[in-house]
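Sharing in case it's useful to others searching the archive later.

Someone asked me privately for the predicted structure of ATP-grasp domain-containing protein, so I'm posting the question and my answer publicly. Question first, with the sequence:
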Amino acid sequence: MTTDPHRAGRPRVLLATYAEMPDSHEDERALPAALGELGIDSRWAVWDSSPDSFDSADLVVLRTTWDYTSRLKEFVEWCESVPALANPARVVRWNSDKRYLAELAEAGVSVTPTRVVDPGDRAPGDEEPELPEREFVVKPTVGAGSRGAARFLPEQREQALRQLRSLHDEGSSALVQPYQPVVDREGETALVFFGGVYSHGFVKGPLLDPADDTSGAVGLGKGPFATEPAPALRRVAEDVLDATGELLGVARSELLYARVDLVRGEDGAPMLLELELIEPRLNFLLADRAAPLRFASAVRAELARRAA
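And my answer, the predicted structure tokens:
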């Protein structure tokens, strides 16, 4: 006679993905087995299907829900409907709009200089030349990867203004940030945390093509590459998580996963480029073999915390 493991008291976890990847990305395929080693039953589930299953799960973990930026309102409403979600819905709502960078800067975190330009605002340069007088980036406040983002030289102000207007016409606010040239040489360093504890790191090469097509810059390529981040980078990453916890009223350990993307400024000091708390790629395939087990342990700790 077989026994249903759920009735035997094993917790049930759903790993949320999206319809184009019902079995998730190859980078995440080790997670169900790692969770199983700790006595946790899990499976992949498309986030906008089978609502009853999400209601009955002991925990729903956002993973490869990579269509959320094009369906943000629907996605956030779904997150708020899930009784047990990691990361929590209020974290998702806050982190889905890159305005959080300004909040973290106000909290004392070292952040890449960022200006938000909303639809209806006077676009920089209409009356006063407020765009950076160095290479800069324009990108949407809601978006993933490099979609909708572009690099511009100071003399390309008209092209940048057209990019801003294009984003505004789509109903999107925009960020304007000075481009950090060290990215072309060193890339961005991503630090991954599970339950507030550092797990592993990797480097991403520059995602945006140079504004000057004749520059001949080679850079690092797209990457990613495994790395062991320097202590200074780890300190800033932990400062970011602590400041986030203060802003959102959550303990660092309540962030089941986090990816902190850092760059070095021209003075060599680390700065936050992005904080990924919704569905970041964690690059388990680049990490040591124990990384999925560290993730599973963090899930087990989250289950215990919620059951207490």
